[in-house]
What does this fold into?
Amino acid sequence: MAWTNKEISALVEPDRAHRKAYTDEDLFELEMERIFERAWIYVGHESQVKNPGDYYLARIGRQPMMMTRDHYGEVHVLYNRCPHRGAQLCSARSGNAGKRIRCSYHAWMFGLDGKLESIPAIDGYDGTNLTIDGEDFQVPKAARAASYRGFWFASLAEDGISLEEQLGEAKTGFDQLIDRAPGRETEVVGECFHMVQHSNWKIFLENQLDASHPGATHESTGIAAQMVERDMRADGRSPPLSYGFLSDFARLGIDGWGKFGTVGHPHGHCTLEGYMGLRPDDPETNAYVKAMYESYGEERAEEILGVNLHHSLIYPCMSIQPPLQQLRTIRPISPTRTMSEIWHFRLKGAPEAIYQRALGYYYLVNSPSTMVNADDLFNWWKVQHGLDSQGGDWVSFHRNAGFDIIDGNLRKSPEGSMSEMPLRHMMHVWRDYMTAEEGA
Amino acid sequence: MGEAAEKLAASDPHAVANVSIETQLAVERFLARQAEILDEKRWDDWLALFTEDGHYWMPAHEDQIDGEGVPNIFWENLDMMQMRINRNNHPQAHSQAPENRLCHVVSNVIIESEDATGDIIVRSRFHCAEYLRYDVRNFTGKYRHCLKKTDDGYKIQLQRADLVNREGPFEYVLQWWV
Ligand code: FES
Ligand SMILES: [Fe+2]
It folds into this structure.
C-alpha cells in the first residue's frame, strides 16, 4: 500500500508501536529511502582498506557500495556498478584491485577513485556522446562521505546535516575506542563475523538497550558459566576474566540490570552506561593504566578511562562497545532479514592481555558459536513470527513510560529502572525520519 | 603456541605416512567413534576423547596456524566444552529446544605421520547434517587431528575443523561442535 505520512505517524504512539512497522514490505522500502539512503550510514573503518588499491564492499540501504583507497591514499565510497552496462565491479567481499579496477565484462578500467581511465578499442566511440571524462561514464560516488577519526560513513543524500552533527554526543563511543589506546590509534583485527538475523533491523537496535532481557534471555548461559567457575575454583584454578562476562547474566538476575543508566540522544542514538567498566585491580589492567599515563599524562588518562560507557548505539545502523573493543553494524535486507557485521579492534600500545580479554568477549558473545547471541537471535526470530500474526497489533513499550527525565536535549531513564525509554525514543525518531518530507 | 598446534603447523598437509593396517584401522575407528559420540550427545564420552590440555578448534580463516589469541569460530578447552554442555542441557537454553539432531560422516582418512611414541597426525573430510526446527543445515569440511597414544587408546590433543563456508554469513549460530 502507499503509506501517507499521517498513516505512518499513527503507527507510533507514546508507549507502543504498531506491528506493521516491523513487517510491511512497502514500509521497508520507505525506510530504505527515507532513513538508510538519507542518513549517515557506517561504511567501515579505514584500516579495512589499509593499502592503495584496497576495496571493501558495504551495503547502504539497498545500494551496493564499496570503500576504496586510491593511490594517493584517499578513501572513497563508490557505487559498486560499472557505468558501461551496469556490471558489478568488485565481487569479492574485499581485496586489492591493484592500480586500477578492471570491469570483468568489457575491460573498462577505472581508478580507485572511480574515474574512467581507459576503454579498449576506444575509437568505436568516436563521434558518439561518450567521452572518457563524461559524467555518466564515471563510477558514481556516494553523495557525501566523511570520516569521524577513521570511521567512515556515507550519506546518499546530497544535502542534510554534517556527520559530526548527526553523531552529536554519541560520538563519544568512537572517541573512547580510539582514546583508550595508549598508541592513540585503533585498527580492525582480521575479517568480521557476519550473521543473518531473521528479524527486522529495529528489533536488533531495541535489544541493545533492552535492560530487562539479559537476565532472562541468557540465564542458561549465565548458570553454565557459573558452574564452570565454581568447579575451577574448587580445583584451585582461577577462571578467566572473560567467563565473568557470561556468569554476570546469572549473577545479576532478571531484575538486576536497572543500575545501568540509559540515555536517549538526538537523532535516535542511545547510550548505556556502566555495566562492564572493566577496570579490575590486576597486573594486566595496571600495566595498561600505566601505559595510558605514559601516553597521555595522568589527568587526561583518568579522564578517558573515567568515561562510564558500555555502548553507544548510533541510529540507525550500529552499536559500538569501546570497553570491549568491538562494533556491530547492520545491513537490512528485507523486513524480516538483517545482515550484521561484527568487528573487533586492537588498541595500539595496549598490553596483549588487554586485547586477549576483549577477544574473550568477542568469542563468547559474538562468534558464530556464541552461547549468548544464539538466544538473542532466536528471540528476535520469534518476535518477528509473532508480529507477522494477527494475534495483536501492538508492541508494548510501557515499562516506565511517562517517567523519562528530560535533561536539555537528552532523555534519561529514571535511576534504577530498566525503562523501555530507549525503545520508545528510537521509535519516535523513526517516525520523524519517515515523515520528515511533506508527503501525501 | 601450544605443542599440538606447533606439531600440526609443522606437518606436511599432503604427507601420506606408511603406517600398518592396524594403525590405519585404529585411527579410522577412533574418528568414526568420535562422530558417533557427537551424534548421540554422549557428553562424558566426548570429554574423555580429549587430553587434559586438548582443544577443539574451528578457525575463522584457512591460513591461521594457531587458535590461541586470534578470532576463531570455536576454540575450546575442556572447561569451555563443559560450559557448552552445561548450557545446552539447561532447560532455559531456549534456542536449543527442541534439541537438534546431528549426523556425521567422516571419510578420506589419511595419516600424515606416526611418531616413535605412536602419536598420530591425521587428516580427513567430514560431512554433518543438522536438523533443527524443520530445517536441515549442512556443514562440511576438513578435519586434522593430533592424537596422543595413551594406555587408554588415542586422545585428541588438538582437533582442527576447517569449514568449507567458514567466512560465509551464518544463518543462525552453531551450538555444538561440528
Ligand atoms: S559492463 Fe563494465 S565494461 Fe562493460
Ligand atoms: Fe542479549
Summary: The radius of gyration of chain B is 16 Å. The CA atoms of residues 35 and 95 of chain B lie 23 Å apart. The mean pLDDT of chain B is 94. Chain B touches chain A through 33 residues (CB under 8 Å).
